[in-house]
Design a protein that fits this description.
By secondary structure, the chain is α+β, with helices and mostly antiparallel strands. The chain is 51% helix and 7% strand. It contains 20 helices and 6 strands.
Length: 465
Amino acid sequence: MSTPSLENVGDYTRQVVDFVHDLSFNDLPGEVIEHTKLVLLDTIGALIAASNSKYDAGRKLTEFVRGLGGRQESTIIGQGFKSSCINAAIVNGTFGYYCDIEAHHPEAVVHPAATIVPTCLAVAEREKVGGKELLIAFILGTEFDCRVSMALNPRVLYDQGFHPSSIAGTIGAALAAGRLFGLDKNQYPTALGLSAQQTSGLLAWKEDFSENSRPFNHSIAARNGITSAYLAKLGFGGPPDIFEGRYNIFRAFAKWQLENLQTLTRELGNNYSITELAFKKYSCCAFLHPGLDALISIMNNHNLNSADVEKIVLRFPKNGTELIDGTDLRSHSAQYILPIGAHDREVMISDILFDRRSEPGIKRLVKNTQIIGDEKLDVKFPEKYASVVEITTTTDKKFSKRVDYAAGTPENPFSADDIKTKFIRLSHAVVDDSTCRQIIDFVDSIEQQEDIDKLGELLLGNSGS
């Protein structure tokens, strides 16, 4: 059996491995570090909120993990116990995307934080690594989650029925876990090969209205990425080069072109994808956020309440309407989410997990909300989700507003205080105020922490069973 070696891989693969293995904390600009800490805190807030015992996915997954057993090495967030890092990835990976309120990358159309944070927390806690290494792993996993999705072309993946967040997320998770496991350079190609073999995640969740399998795709990515990296560390064999080998990932998922490979390494180390993530204000599909901003702005500026609204029209890029138009999946349904926004001026996790369409005010607006695919808005989609909302009132007044960049995007950013306030709001139902403040303080100084055991303890919660 041949020994894995960087000598057997192509130039692009070697560049990826060199970057992942060699990146040091001192290489990272201060603004990237500070931004990464905010993304970490924001994601932890989403994880805590999703662990609330009133939501069924957490209860079922907790029962699943307790039934399997496992070494007590990584925290099952909010459930009061620890299990194996693989089990933690399964539960916490699902929590990552359950609320649909964590940061996403508009151009890559992925939710890397939902996969990479659970991956990093699980492995870092098991390996007893420090906060600096966790941040580096999070940055690296996010980088290649985004780059792999863009290299494969998320539009192509969606057209073929694949979920980019899961496909690319598995690769990103393997690299993040590999960094935390301390792989040497010759082990990374195997980790990549094994992760590519395990890439999965269909858009079939669009027809699962329980909202369980949608976030489960992120747990698949976290679990498989960790598995790949650990097997590589143990010397398990795998495909030597899934970026440039004969049976490469592009051959499997996309029409191969040289530019696919170039996307993996272009400007590597000069720009960091984690700084391009968009924070989310609402608990729903990111495609709906500009429309919600426009809708709520119109209502606030004209002192309207939901009873004043006769009709809502959302004009959206034609190429993206399939995901949000006419679906019964509440988190992605424009006909459901916009009426909630009109009624409450917000959309939170309970709104997507518990059906409110029987409420008279919501029910009326659901019937009177229309989506129009507008080719004029396609120009920069999916990098930009340009949206136009038109409201007709019960007195036949008409208002219109266009929003190109939702609140929380790099072009329309949240402040650090905005993110901390959001974190407290998401977390308070599961952990007390003192614990919230301790988590904020820990993340603020995470690069000074020798290991993250204390963070794991803070994230255990009090729910027990």
